[in-house]
Fold:
Amino acid sequence: MTHSIATIGRRKQQSELFFSLPSSKSISNRLLIIGFLADSSLKIKNLSSSDDTLLLKRHLAEIKRRFILPRRRFIPTRRRFVSINRQDNFAEFDCKNAGTTCRFLIALLSITYGKWLIKADERMEHRPLMPLIDVLKRLGADIEIAGAGRVFPLKIKGKPLSGGDCITLPPNYSSQFASALAMIAPYMQKGLSISLSDAQVSKPYIDMTLSLMRDCGAEIKLSDNILQISPVEYKFGEFEVEADWSSAAFAYALVAVLKLPLLKIKGLGDNSLQGDAAVRELFFEFFGVKTLFADDCALLSYSETSRENNKVAKIDFKSCPDLFLPLVVTAVCLRQAFEYKGLETLVHKESDRLGNLVAELKKMGLKLQSDSSSLAIYDYDSSLFDGKMVLETDSYNDHRFAMAMSLFASVSEKVIIKNPDCVEKSFPNYWEEFSKFFDLSLS
Structure:
C-alpha cells in the first residue's frame, strides 16, 4: 500500500528496546557489481532489501538474461560471445533517482557487450553525472546523450576499453565516480590508474570499494594518492553484508533525544568497512550516547554526565555527508549549539538537503547562520520546544530527510510528513521500527 502522509503523535512507553537495522546498501551495491563482473553464481548473504539495491539487482539480472555465452560475458576475454540483442535494439534500464545504481551501471555497461539505454527521474538530471561520463568517453567508451535532457536518456554501446591511463578526479567529485571506475578497472585491457586528492569528498566510501575489490582478488597499489589497478579478474567468494551504519545514525539520534537508558541493535560490530561507523564517536563526543559491543549487538545508552551541554558541536561532514541530517536534528532537539561544515555536496543528494533543511528550520522560527557549505545555530528561543508544536513538512522524496524530520516528534505535539514511503530507498522497515517509540499512523 502506498502512503501519502505519516502522522506521528505521542511517545510510547517501552519495556525492552530493540532496533532492527537494514543491511548496508553501499556494501550490497558494490558486491553486486563485483559479483557480476566475476560471473559468480554465489548468493550474497544478508543483501540489502532497499529499493536501490533491489533495482540494481533486477537490472543486472536483466543484463545477464540477454546473453548466450560459453562462459563469460565481458569484453576482456577472447572467448566467443553471442548476444541475443537485436542489432538495432537498445535494452532499456530505468534508474529512477538511484544515484549509486545509475553511476555504477553507466560504468559497467560501457565495457559490457550490447546496446544499452539508461533513463532516470527528473531529479537525477540535476545530480552530478557528466564528469563520470566525460571520463569514460576519454577512455574510449561509446556514450551519447540521446534526447533533449541534460543527461537522459543515455545511449551506451559496450566495447573494449584499453585503459592504462591515469585519470585525475578533482576532490569535489562524488566518491561514486572513483568507485564506479575502480570496480571496472580490472576488466580494462591495461587496467587503470586513478589520481585522488587528500581532500577527496566521502573518501571512506572509496576505501570501502577498494577493500571489497581486494577481498575478491583485485591487485591494487596506492602510492602518493595514485591508485594503480591491474587487469586481474575478480574471484568472488562468500560474503555476508553487515548492518548499515548510515541508518544506525537514526537509532543513535533516538537514544539521544529520548535519553534512552538502553537500546540494542543487532548486526553492528566494532570493526566495519563503513566510514559512517564514525557516528558512534560523534554521538558520544557531542550528545552523550555510549556504545558497547556484545554478542553481535551494539548496546547504546544515554549518559547525561557524558554530555557537555556548553560545548559547541563542531563537525566536518566532508567524509560522512549522510550523517548530517540526523546530527542536525539531534542538536536542535537537544538545543545544542553547533557549527557544521563540509556540506557542499548535499545539494546533489536525493534532494537539496541543506537548502531544504534550512527552509524547514526557518519555518520553525530557528535563528541560524548558513551558506552553501555550512550551517550553525548558537542559541535557541526557550519557547520554541514546549511540546505543543505541530510540524508539517514535505519529505522532498528524500529517504534521509523523512527519517530526520520524524525525530522532531520528541519535542512536538504532532509531526506530519508527506510522502513517507520514500524511506524504502534505504530503510524499508523504518516506520515499523520508529513506531516502537511513538504513536504512528500512515495513510
Summary: Residues 68-86 have pLDDT under 50 and may be disordered. The radius of gyration is 23 Å. The longest helix spans residues 51-65.
